[in-house]
Write a structure and sequence with these properties.
The chain is mostly beta strands. About 10% of the residues lie in helices and about 60% in strands. It has one domain: Porin. A 12-stranded antiparallel barrel has the order 2-3-5-7-8-9-10-11-12-13-14-15.
Length: about 270
């Protein structure tokens, strides 16, 4: 009953946005859907990524994680953009570490910077490279790692007709802080199919390998999304199920992702 209540509450919170949303008749809907599949597109967006995870860890707990992820492109020359991508996690969880204990607060912030050419290569490849930083901003000891970390970050993708496919990769090492040492690799392959009416279908996998303790955790998700308009605000609404795998003892069994992405296309 607890899980059903939490799903209902999360859907109820998103319902006003869904009811306000009206299908956008502008021809740019397809272009926006394609740009949203591109992590280094020249498009300002504020994704609000709602993650509901069930049967988390040995105590089969519940976790709700809202990731606020502003993506801001900045033109730094005639041929290059700088893309800032920040992930601010707000977490509430119960029975994850210890039975009958709850934690709520801010998690560790991840800041990525990509330097990306404004135009694709001759072969149609779009790419970006730069640093990624882990900031120990957690407001609860259990919600963060108490460690500063940094490393290289890259994204590679290609547009082919209605398809966008590629991968985001990074590796971080710890360099300060009171937490455990970090040496972790992350890879996120994805493929998206965008339709002419602004809808998109995505299959994506997120995988993290911790080399210091040989712990691997991953998930695969299938998501549907649609570019819509609520008043004067362009947005993309979507979501879908996630299934987890790997030997991480705190992996959930499964989850749901519900996205609200506020869009600010260039005039």
């Amino acid at each position: 009953m607890k899980i059903k209540s939490k799903i209902t509450t999360a859907l109820f919170c998103l319902l006003p946005l869904i009811l306000l949303a009206q299908e956008d008749s502008v021809k740019s809907a397809e272009d926006l859907a394609k740009q949203l599949a591109n992590p280094v597109a020249s498009l300002i967006s504020i994704p609000l990524q709602n993650n509901l995870d069930f049967n988390v860890g040995p105590n089969e707990g519940f976790r709700y994680n809202l990731n606020i992820q502003p993506v801001i492109p900045i033109s730094i020359s005639e041929n290059w953009n700088l893309i800032s991508r920040t992930i601010v996690p707000i977490i509430t969880q119960s029975d994850v570490i210890i039975d009958n204990q709850n934690q709520t607060g801010l998690g560790d912030i991840v800041q990525s910077i990509f330097f990306s050419p404004k135009e694709p290569s001759k072969g149609g490849l779009i790419w970006g490279v730069g640093p990624v930083l882990l900031l120990p901003t957690a407001t609860d000891d259990i919600l963060g790692g108490h460690t500063w970390a940094a490393g290289p970050n890259a994204v590679f993708l290609k547009l082919k007709g209605q398809f966008t496919y590629g991968a985001l990769v990074n590796h971080m090492w710890s360099y300060a802080g009171s937490g455990n040492d970090i040496s972790a690799s992350f890879i996120q392959p994805f493929v998206t199919y965008a339709t002419p009416d602004g809808a998109s279908y995505t299959i994506a996998s997120e995988n993290t390998q911790s080399w210091n303790n040989d712990v691997f955790g991953g998930l695969v998700g299938a998501y549907y999304a649609k570019v819509v308009k609520a008043g004067n605000q362009m947005m993309q609404l979507g979501g879908g199920p996630k299934v987890y795998y790997g030997n991480n003892p705190f992996n959930p069994d499964w989850g749901l992702r519900l996205n609200v992405i506020l869009l600010y296309p260039k005039k």
